[in-house]
């Protein structure tokens, strides 16, 4: 149950220094890993984008607590080892329901990357309403994502892949990256192995279906 989740009424009421300390000053969160699980992707992204604040949204309390503790340990280790980069101060995990509260945390056009890695494990049994990619949810992602920003999806479930591609491709505000553009994006290789779920799929010799979508410019109003 998620009735106990605290969330800001509006994004400007969110105090990000509680998660990033002084590192939040003058910066806004730009990357969101939705259903981040144990946070493997964020740990890989953190040193690669030291100036960018990134957040994992995770529904399970124990899992989000685990990620928060892991980040704290990495920050301390970075401090003692004299890390000159972000030292994991740019990464945090928030326990929340991304299907309910994204617009409470992020303003219009705030995000530049949203990740959905191995979401919806029970895709087939789920009611449409609770799928992470639905027409209603796409409107929210389009709102918080900046034009030119990217949505990354990865799954081992072919039906889910086809569902996400169909909905995102037919949406007026998203377009799929070409194969060439996908290959040129240095983040794409991280979608395969950086997370715990990705490693599990590899161990089980499962398939992996990545896709990347660009948030288009808003149409000019006539
Ligand atoms: N992305 C991670 C990975 O690749 O290892 C985790 C994948 S796991 C199969 C899906 C995760 O999404 C779970 O940890 C689950 O708790 C989380 N989740 C499901 N629905 C969510 C929601 N509405 N908001 C936030 N997290 C959610």
Written account of the structure:
This protein has helices at residues 17-20, 40-48, 61-80, 98-105, 135-144, 158-170, 179-184, 190-193, 196-203; strands at 29-34, 53-58, 91-95, 111-117, 145-155, 174-176, 209-215. The chain has one domain: Rossmann fold (3-Layer(aba) Sandwich), CATH 3.40.50.150. The protein starts with 16 loop residues before the first helix and ends in a 7-residue tail after the last strand. The chain is an alpha/beta fold. The chain is built from nine helices and seven strands; from the N terminus they run αβαβαβαβαβαβαααβ. The model has no long low-confidence stretch (mean pLDDT 94). Helix content is 37%, strand content 20%. S-adenosylmethionine binds next to strand 2, helix 4 and helix 9. S-adenosylmethionine (SAM) binds at residues 35-37, 57-60, 63, 97-99, 117-119, 121, 195-198.
Rg, rounded, reads 17 Å
Strand order of the largest sheet: 3-2-1-4-5-7-6
CATH topology: Rossmann fold
Percent helix, as a range, is: 25-40%
Q: Count of helices? A: 9
Distance between the termini: 45 Å
**What is the β-strand count?**
7
List the ligand species.
S-adenosylmethionine
What's the level 1 CATH class?
Alpha Beta
Biggest sheet character: 7 strands, mixed
Architecture (CATH level 2) name: 3-Layer(aba) Sandwich
Question: Which residue ranges are poorly predicted, with pLDDT under 50 across at least 5 consecutive positions?
Answer: none
Write out the CATH superfamily name.
Answer: Vaccinia Virus protein VP39
SS strand fraction: 15-25%
Give the overall silhouette: globular
Task: State the secondary-structure class.
Answer: alpha/beta
**What is the arithmetic mean of pLDDT?**
94
How many structural domains in the coordinates?
1
Subcellular location: Nucleus
Keywords: Methyltransferase, Nucleus, RNA-binding, S-adenosyl-L-methionine, Transferase, tRNA processing, tRNA-binding
GO molecular function, one term: tRNA (guanine(46)-N7)-methyltransferase activity
Pathway: tRNA modification; N(7)-methylguanine-tRNA biosynthesis
